[in-house]
Amino acid sequence: MRNKRMILIASGVAIAFLLIAVSIRMYSDKKVEEPKYISAILYGNTIDRWDSLKQGIEQAGKDYGAEINFVVMSTDTNSEEQLSLIQREIDNGAEGIILAASDSDMDLSSISFPSKDFPIICVESGVNDQRINLVSADNYTMGESLALEVIAQESPIAKIAIVMDNQQRNSVKERYEGFYNKVVEKFYNFTFWRREEGESRPMISAQRELVAEAVDVVVALDNTSLEAVIDATLNLNKKVKIYGIANSDKAVYYLDTGRIKNLVYQDEFSIGYIGIESLLGKENYNEKEMSNYIKYHIVNDETLYLPENERVLFPFVK
User: Fold this and answer.
1) CA of 109: how far to CAs of 2, 101, 102, 131, in Å?
2) Which helix (H) or strand (E) holds 216?
3) Dist. CA 88–CA 94, nearest whole Å
């Protein structure tokens, strides 16, 4: 009788250990399936431009146990370079990609992904691929909001120059459409500055046009274009009214000093954080939820230091 009882106890212990081992194995397998080594591949040749986005990505990586490797390009616009960086990071073991696309028309079919459901999320500017989600504020309404600022503050006879740089990115294209469709209701006197073939920076066009055109207002729709306009006005000692969509340190500085009248900026910290959440499958935001969490704001020199603006525009100031 005692032997039978000992056998039953031993059997029970063995079964318990087996169940624990199976549970540990299942949990371990589940953890392996979740991407933990993430590469964030961002257009532009400096990480400084992405301070707020980087902080959001790093915070989410810390919260969810993901290691983040940041990769920047040598230029803003070379999609072939960005494609090669994506492939390089995958070959080096990246288990997921956060991408700020340099060109929305880039063809990702050339990439050898480890699997058909390899996780990749676009932030700030996406690609024309319905399988890849974009995490961003509403670029069209940001353009509209900037137009409303110009309408409220400028004369209808003012001559407006719109910087048409980086339209290979859908984010800039949508901002332009939102701005133009709204501002054209009141203004009619426009000139457009485009990057000419072979030009490496939009500043060349900006300088040429500022000399040739007697413009009253300049509107720039991304960081690089706005900074080029600032450089052109400084180099030529031109005083024009500047409006833009940007959040770089340079743009904020010249807003504070009065050279820029109004900025529209998006909360890139939230874009970075939600991008990692989405990539890891921790949250699944629909379009309405996305717009609730990722805000954009309009700021001038009087509202620059309000707490809600200061938190995003000065991410390293505590």
Assistant:
1) 69, 15, 16, 12
2) none
3) 9
Contact 220, 246 (CB under 8 A): yes
Q: CA–CA separation, 89 vs 35, rounded Å?
A: 13
Residues 6+ apart with CB under 8 A from 84: none
Whole-model pTM: value is: 0.81
Quote the pLDDT of residue 32: 41
Angle between helical axes of 203-212 and 223-236 (0-180°, round to 10): 50
3-state secondary structure of 67: strand
**Structure token digits, residue 273:** 């954080």
Euclidean distance between CA atoms 158 and 188, whole angstroms: 9
Structure confidence by residue, pLDDT tens digits, 268-298: 999 999 999 999 988 777 767 777 788 899 9
Q: Is 126 helix (H, G, I), strand (E, B) or coil?
A: coil
From the list 150, 262, 263, the residue with the least C-alpha distance to 216 is 150
Reported as a pLDDT band with limits 50, 70 and 90, residue 197 is low
CA–CA distances in Å: residue 26 to residues 20, 35, 281, 283: 10, 16, 18, 22
Contacts of 223 (CB under 8 A, 6+ apart): 49, 246, 247, 248, 251
Residues 215 and 205: beta-carbon distance below 8 Å: no
Phi, psi of 83 (to 5 degrees): -60, -40
The string of DSSP codes covering 139-188 is: HHHHHHHHHHHHHHHS-TT--EEEEE--TTSHHHHHHHHHHHHHHTTT--
Reading the block at residue 253, the tokens are: 């500085």
